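Technical note accompanying the year-one report. For the benefit of new consortium partners, we illustrate the data format agreed upon in the data management plan: each record pairs a sequence with a structure-token string. No post-processing was applied to the example shown here.
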Amino acid sequence: MPNKKVNIPELPPDSADGLLQDIDVLHNAILSASEEANPSGENGGLLAIVRLLGGISKEQWDSLAERYHLDQWLAIDLSTPSTREMALLYKNMQDLASRKGNDELTGLPTREIFMRNLQLELERLKRQPADLSVASLDVDGIRQINSKWGHNMGDEALKRLARDLMDTKRVYDTAARMGGEKFALLLPGAGLNRAKAIVQRLLNEFRQNKFSSPSGEEFSVTFSAGIATLSNDSAHSCEQIMEAAEKALKQAKETGCNKVVATQILIEDEIRRSMVHSDEKHFLFFGKHKG
């Protein structure tokens, strides 16, 4: 029986090219590793590398594979009775991945996952220059809360912020718990103003939450945030971007907490242009260049 044709949205050219390029990179890397491990080429085998995908039918995949020439990718429908055991395996793999990659208290991804996603976004910028913002968040006064009402109340505040992060972030953003009372938000495609608006809205909503202590005393919690933004620049490392966000966070903390501070990371060419422009203005008004 011929496969049923299913209408699916056309991928934008850039997305399609990026997908095919990623597949080629993976394929070449595997072949290279195979040749290094077995330079003689003897006893070559046939290997299936499987990635399980939810939310897509076999008919949709067949249409997609035909359109983008993905004939060598194997697709197995796990919703049929004959593949029930594989569907159970899929569920178990999801559960294991969730326990391994997520923070136990909040359910958010860990620092390791966040940094890996940040590196992937930097790699993407090399192919498609765009804005990229990182926000570093620190819950204000968490130690005082723990000391006054116990760690359970502090944990409630952390879990509430985690839920607000998940409710506020866009589908393609990454929210993570970096450790202790520190969180982070990865915002692909968000420029400085957009990123600051997102985090400010999150802060406005979070500080409206009311918590009740064991004695019945009601209190609210705030956080401070620092944002670092790259524009059309993939030359910086993950560490440099995080360092810039941490520096902005420190400024927010030192100037009263409960606020968002944002900074633009400039590439060297922009810095030089800014310095030249400043020198030209100085010469225009004072008749001499800066010494």
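Partners are asked to follow this layout when depositing records. The chain has nine helices and seven strands.
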